[in-house]
Amino acid sequence: MKLADLFDHFIIDLDGVVYIGDKPTEGAIETLETLRTLGKTIIYLTNDPRGSSRDYSDKLNRMSIPASPHDIITSGMAIAHYIKQHYQLNHKNAFVVGSRALKEEIEEIGLKLAQGEEAKRADFVIVGGHEGFNYEEMKIATLAVKNGAYLFATNRDPVFPTPEGLVPATGAILASIEYATGKRAIIAGKPEVIMFEVAKKFLSSHERVAIIGDRLDTDILGGKRAGITTIFALSGSTDRDVLSNSDITPDYVINDLRDLLKEK
Ligand SMILES: [Mg+2]
Question: What is the 119 CA–ligand 1 centroid distance (Å)?
Fold first, then answer.
């Protein structure tokens, strides 16, 4: 009996499970190949709103992991799905604090991107971390929310890892806008359930589904909130000490993806 035998569908966090930076994790290429051969569905998740689904599928393909943009859910895509599902978007516009990829996701659901004076009265403000963030964006987003815009963000991660160390992520940028407006954003990314609900829409069944992630406070907590079996991978940013001291308990623990296929 292998752990993989218990599931037909895997929702897999990318960073720390499939790869770290630009390097696939130990055995990831072979394991993912075998899972596909066994007929398992694989959906990849990332909280990083800077790239498009195609950017991430291209990255996987460069590592010899076959994937198409349809196999990948970013937090930008998840918030766009959520807004489309819950709001009337006819003749509405949005001010987006974020990457080109996030702006495209928002345009694709039918919202017009507001600029200049118009942006200060936008109907929606959507925040995703990006390197070009500046005071002008913070100001316009604040004015729009004060004027009644709904506030959304892709995720609330405070930092993300880079070769220089941990640098500010979406959560840090969002905090400035929430502080200025006194409003709290609706978030799509893990551990919020929106991301998992969007992922479930990509699956043919909601039975025998597992989320595999390397963070307890996002992947595992989010999976539990969404009612999905959780598999915690030690290949990323969390070690066994953190695991034993946490009150978030995953259903299964693996060292890396290879453990899915080991006989138990
Ligand atoms: Mg991760």
Answer: 34
Rounded to the nearest whole angstrom, what is the distance from the C-alpha of residue 208 to the centroid of ligand 1?
A: 22
Distance from Cα 41 to the centre of ligand 1, integer Å: 19
Cα-to-chain-centroid distance, residue 49:
7
Looking at residues 74-89, what average pLDDT do you find?
Answer: 96
Beta strands in the chain (DSSP E): 9-13, 19-20, 23-24, 41-46, 72-74, 93-97, 112-113, 124-127, 150-153, 159-162, 165-168, 186-187, 209-213, 229-233, 252-254
Domain spans, the chain: 3-47+190-261, 76-187
CATH topology of domain 76-187: Rossmann fold (3.40.50)
Mean pLDDT over 66-87 rounds to: 96
Please state the pTM of the whole predicted model: 0.91
Identify the CATH homologous superfamily for domain 3-47+190-261.
HAD superfamily/HAD-like (3.40.50.1000)
How far does the centroid of ligand 1 lie from the alpha carbon of residue 15, in Å?
Answer: 4
pLDDT average, residue stretch 139-146:
98
Quote the pLDDT of residue 139.
98
**Domain 3-47+190-261 identical in fold to domain 76-187:** yes
pLDDT of residue 232: 97
| CA dist., res. 90 & res. 95, Å (int) | 15
CA of 182 to the centre of ligand 1 (A): 30
pLDDT band at 264 (very low <50, low <70, confident <90, very high): confident
The alpha carbon of 137 and the centre of ligand 1 are apart by a number of angstroms equal to 28
Distance 17 CA to ligand 1 centre (A): 6
In this prediction, residue 166 has a pLDDT band, given cuts at 50, 70 and 90, of: confident
Whether residue 239 is predicted with pLDDT greater than 90 in this model: the reply is: no
Q: Which DSSP state fits 154?
A: S
